[in-house]
Amino acid sequence: MLASIFLDFNLPNAATWFYLSLMLAIAVFLRFNRLLALRNWDLFTLFMITPGFLLLQEAHALLYTADRNNFEASVKTQLTDRGKMLLLFGYAWLIAGSGYWFARCLLDLALEKRPALTPNLNLSGLAWMASTLFICMVVVAVRRIPDVPIEQIGKGPIALIRVQEGATAVVNYQSGIPTFDVADTRFWIERSVAMGLHLAVLVGLVLIGSIHFQDTTAGMGMACLYLLMPCTAFHVSQVHHVWPAVFLVWAVFAYRRPIIAGMLLGLAAGSIFFPLLLFPLWFGFYRGRGSARFTTGFLLATAVSLSATGVVLWSHGEISRHLGIALSLADWQAWKQPLTESIWTGAHWAYRMPIFILYMAFVILTIFWPTPRNLAQVIAQTAAVVIGVQFWYADQGGVYVLWYLPLILMMIFRPNLSDRRPLLIDPETDWLSRCSRAVRSRLRRFVSKPEQPTLALK
Questions:
Q1: What is the pLDDT of residues 229-286, one digit of tens each?
Q2: How far apart are the first and last CA of the chain?
């Protein structure tokens, strides 16, 4: 009896977690002595994205109930209509939130002097809070709720899905148990990968705060707020939501190493489409300070990532089929009418096409503007480019907050980073420059023909 009292632990539902996390975030991060500070406003508006997710959850619950129960025709129609209306409101809310944060990222380009955002909790307290929150997220990820279907939100990288299926098959084979539950194995592998990716994001945020912001408390604060955000808990098991965020966070951490940053972005671009749109921005960031190295790393890593995807699909005999599916999808092709669930469902392509054209013009503009740019501007522009995808992406566009949430947190917590730029490359002392000169010299010796000796006339 005592065991049931002390161990009967129930996680809060989505709405309860929204209110509890908001109150906890206010207690830890709000500057009560400067209520009108911009960062206080950032804290509130960051949580104001969440009602869109709550509307979508209610809409899907209504549509699921109407579809799976034998109601009268009038009741089923009423539930379906209400569910579709809430779907529209939910996506409209998320798109409006994306629009606000897109404008906020552009505003941040003009903000250089930033007062430090000192949390109301010291470093030790923040570390304890982040650890306990992460344990709670693990519980959320592994706890199964009966009779509630766990569906994938949006399309993930097909190669990643096939690798998870391959890992499931390997575990089943190694177990040697004929009655091994495949679904159970797939569940644990997916959740383990998701939590490992979230942990990689948290470690990256802490290191960026400690090394680049020179404030370990700010890094730990970013990690705590990342775990407090309701969207993190809502999509904690969605691997493809956090997958690209890992590469973006670590690319920011490695910004002083153009090759490594290019490789990280290239690996992300080869597995999911939108990091490819970040290449112009980061190329402009490294222009004159290692752009060739960044481009080389990006192209090589993209080729490796695409090759790995091709090998995985070829091993399953699916490469031609999935290539045809990818080329026919209207999700990322704005000139086609979308069919998947989003705010664009049923809308003519002519309404989406102008937004896509404006977005691509902004992406091209990032090559040249602003010049020169520092790390703070790169973080803000990277977040803006990722947020801009939400406006025209037709597969549940607006729900992919985890793609850009770590970047938003860096933008909120960052100090003055006007002096953080890629290092100038000295060709005399740089190892890669010396190696390239040595290789070119050897090639010239190998290619050039030796001169024939001339005979002296007697």
A1: 998 988 888 888 899 999 999 999 999 999 999 999 999 998 888 889 999 999 999 9
A2: 118
pTM: 0.87
Kindly give, in sequence order, each residue whose CB lies less than 8 Å from that of residue 289, ignoring residues fewer than 6 positions away.
258, 421, 422, 423, 424, 425
Sign of CA dihedral 352, 355, 359, 361: positive
pLDDT tens readout for residues 30-60: 888 888 888 889 999 999 999 999 999 888 8
Which residues, in sequence order, are CB contacts of 454 under 8 Å at separation 6+? none
| Burial class of residue 86 in the structure, from the number of CB atoms within 10 Å of its CB (0-12 exposed, 13-18 middle, 19+ buried) | buried
| Spatial separation of the C-alpha atoms in residues 124 and 201, rounded to whole Å | 20
Q: Report domain extents, the chain.
A: 11-144+155-426
Buried b (16+ CB within 10 A) or exposed e, 395-433: bbbbbbbbbbbbbbbbbbbbbebeebbbeeeeeeeeeee
* Maximum Cα–Cα distance across the chain: 118
- Show the tokens assigned to 268: 């992300």
- C-alpha 177/C-alpha 456 separation (Å) is 88
Cα Rg, the chain, nearest whole Å = 25
Give the containing element (helix H, strand E) for 173: helix 158-175
The one-letter amino acid code at 213 reads: F
Say if residue 73 is exposed, middle or buried (CB neighbours under 10 Å; 0-12, 13-18, 19+). exposed
The three-point CA angle 122-207-287 to 5° equals: 135
Residue 160 contacts residue 322 (beta carbons within 8 Å)? no
Do 272 and 243 form a contact (C-beta atoms < 8 A)? Answer: yes
Residue with structure tokens 């037709």?
394
CB 205 within 8 A of CB 222: yes
